[in-house]
Design a protein that fits this description.
By secondary structure, the chain is α/β, with parallel strands linked by helices. Helix content is about 35%, strand content about 20%. The chain has a 5-stranded mixed beta sheet with strand order 3-2-1-4-7. A 5-stranded mixed beta sheet has the order 10-9-8-11-12, with helices on both faces. Helix 1 packs parallel to helix 2 and helix 6 crosses helix 7. It binds adenosine-5'-diphosphate and zinc ion. Adenosine-5'-diphosphate binds next to helix 5. Pfam families: ROK (PF00480). This is fructokinase. InterPro entries: ATPase_NBD, Carb_Metab_Reg_Kinase/Isom, ROK, ROK_cs.
Length: about 290
């Protein structure tokens, strides 16, 4: 079976053709411009490939609820040309095949659950810490939606006493994303994040905020494992700091060996490298074809 996949991001659109095992047979990247310019290029890419289904992991917020009047829309995005744009309808009319549609982070969680570090997890969480902070949750191989979809990058956490930064989230200022995204690090310290590698207080503070968020997710969702990805996590010294602080903040309350004895295997980098999102989009296409979503 041939499956089309689109990882739709605010700066680039990654298109791929894959199969039901998650192998990528062909891939091309297009810059994200306006729908008028970009959509015909994407449709051209998929048009003559003979794909059976398409999966879209999309920047958001989106409406993934099939019963809703605005299903398939990118809704309240600050990327204005795409605001209230029905991306599913455009592809559906052009390609006339089943389409799976979800957030970029739910797609990444799904990819990790199908073929990566969240395999065999009843509850798996994928977090990207990059330009924004996004959280995808997979339960028994299905992305979690509920009301709309989780927006757990915007949870409220305790600001450290020594942190005078006001926060960068346009909606909540000092939510998790407002305090810990890549741009927040760069705004607070006045340097590119990758140029701050040797400044320990940067990563100490960053690890603290990430650990607080993880503790909240552990307490709310009881995940079997947590995957951390995104540009900021290229600072791999963060992993040890985060594991230490999660252990400290949990205070021995969650009595699981996965956390108490094996935290190195509990909070982990992506299993699929940079491909979690695009492979998850392949999986979304597969699930749409088989009516699994
Ligand atoms: P996006 O979130 O836009 O999909 P990324 O996950 O690559 O993209 O995140 C980009 C952000 O991650 C940049 O704005 C930068 O702040 C941060 N970043 C990228 N590379 C590094 C690095 N090596 N170390 C620390 N931060 C980085
Ligand atoms: Zn916010």
């Amino acid at each position: 079976m041939k499956i089309g996949a689109l990882e739709a991001g605010g700066t680039k659109m990654v298109c791929a053709i894959g199969d039901e095992d998650g192998s990528i047979l062909k891939r091309e990247v297009f810059p994200t411009q306006t729908p008028d310019i970009t959509m015909p290029l994407l449709i051209d890419f998929f048009m003559d490939e003979g794909i059976d289904a398409l999966g879209i992991g999309c920047f958001g917020p989106i409406d993934p609820n099939k019963c809703s009047a605005t299903y398939g829309y990118i809704t309240s995005t600050p990327k204005l040309p795409w605001k209230n744009y029905n991306i599913v309808k455009t592809f559906s009319e052009a390609l006339n095949i089943p389409i799976g549609f979800d957030t970029d982070v739910n797609a990444a969680a799904l990819g990790e659950a199908a073929w990566g570090a969240l395999k065999d997890c009843e509850v798996g969480i994928y977090i990207t810490i990059g330009t924004g902070i996004g959280v995808g949750v997979c339960i028994n191989g299905n992305p979690l939606h509920g009301l709309i979809h989780p927006e757990a990058g915007h949870i409220l956490i305790r600001k450290m006493a020594n942190d005078n930064y006001k926060g960068k989230c346009p909606y909540h200022s000092d939510c998790f994303e407002g305090l810990a995204s890549g741009p927040a690090i760069e705004d607070r310290w006045g340097k590119k994040a990758y140029d701050l590698k040797d400044v320990p207080e940067v990563w100490d503070l960053e690890a603290d905020y990430i650990a607080q968020a993880l503790v909240n997710y552990i307490l709310c969702y009881s995940p079997n494992r947590i995957v951390l990805g995104g540009g900021v996590m290229h600072q791999d010294q963060l992993f040890a700091l985060i594991r230490e602080k999660v252990t400290e903040y949990l205070g021995g309350y969650v009595r699981s060996d996965a956390i108490i004895k094996h935290i190195d295997e509990y909070i982990v980098p992506t299993g699929l490298g940079e491909d979690s999102g695009i492979k998850g989009s392949i999986r979304l296409g597969y699930m749409a074809y088989h009516n699994l979503i």
